[in-house]
Amino acid sequence: MFLKFALPTMYGTLFALAITTGMRPSECIGLKWQDIDWERGTVSVRRTLRKGPTGQWEYGETKRAGSRRLIRLQNWVIARLKQLREFQTAHPVVDAEEWPEAVDLLFVTEFGRPVNVNSLVYKHFKPILKRAGLPNIRLYDLRHTAATLALTVGVSPKVVSEQLGHTSAAFTLDVYSHVLPHMQDDAAAKVEAALLA
């Protein structure tokens, strides 16, 4: 339901990336085009971007060393990124002299500036939730949604942990323990079916 309302918007591809990879908002807005490996269909999470206390843009390290990671992208997300790249090439808005921080960023504002997470939340994300009739969640909760969806459909906790940049699979399992009872029911049914086949 969320994607149905989010995808047609200006930041639809950013929201698609967030909900399919579990990247933190500051990691999403800090992505540069050179972080995408088109051949392999991956994105490298190498940095964060946020507004500093005096209003200047600051690139920073990821939350911890383990947060630097390589994530495999879903094919439909790669297709959207290619469309976004083509659009930006045909309609450049970044002024390298005025906003050097925005050069090569995947996601910029209509004025060619880096995306401010607070503005993204209140001008874009919250209105999407309202239109879709969804609960008033935080943008960061797309990260939790990505993890919960992956675990629910049977993706290995180790893979989910690596995708999220967690310190260990044990940490991931602890954080998402609410998903485990359903996973155990599903696992028991699958093993039973295999044994009795």
Structure description:
The chain is mostly helical and 197 residues long. The chain has a domain at 2-138: hpI Integrase, Chain A. The protein has nine helices and five strands. The strands form two sheets. Strands 1-2-5 form a three-stranded antiparallel sheet. Strands 3-4 form a two-stranded antiparallel ribbon. The radius of gyration is 18 Å and the shape is globular. The model has no long low-confidence stretch (mean pLDDT 89).
Write the topology of this structure.
Elements: H1 2-6, H2 12-21, H3 25-29, E1 36-37, E2 42-45, E3 48-51, E4 57-60, E5 69-72, H4 75-90, H5 117-132, H6 141-152, H7 157-164, H8 169-175, H9 180-195
Antiparallel strand pairs: 1-2, 2-5, 3-4
**Shape verdict:** globular
Q: How many whole angstroms does the radius of gyration measure?
A: 18 Å
Order of strands in the sheet with most strands: 1-2-5
- Do you know the CATH architecture of the domain at 2-138? Orthogonal Bundle
Structural class: mainly alpha
Q: Just give the CATH class of the domain at 2-138.
A: Mainly Alpha
How much of the sequence lies in strands comes to 5-15%
Give the distance, in angstroms, between the N- and C-terminal Cα atoms: 37 Å
What kind of sheet is the major sheet? Answer: 3 strands, antiparallel
**Averaged pLDDT:** 89
Helix and strand string, N-terminal first? HHHEEEEEHHHHHH
User: Helix coverage percent of residues?
Assistant: 40-55%
CATH topology-level fold name of the domain at 2-138: hpI Integrase, Chain A
Figure out the total of helices: 9
The count of strands amounts to 5
The CATH superfamily of the domain at 2-138 appears as Intergrase catalytic core
Stretches with pLDDT under 50, minimum 5 residues: none
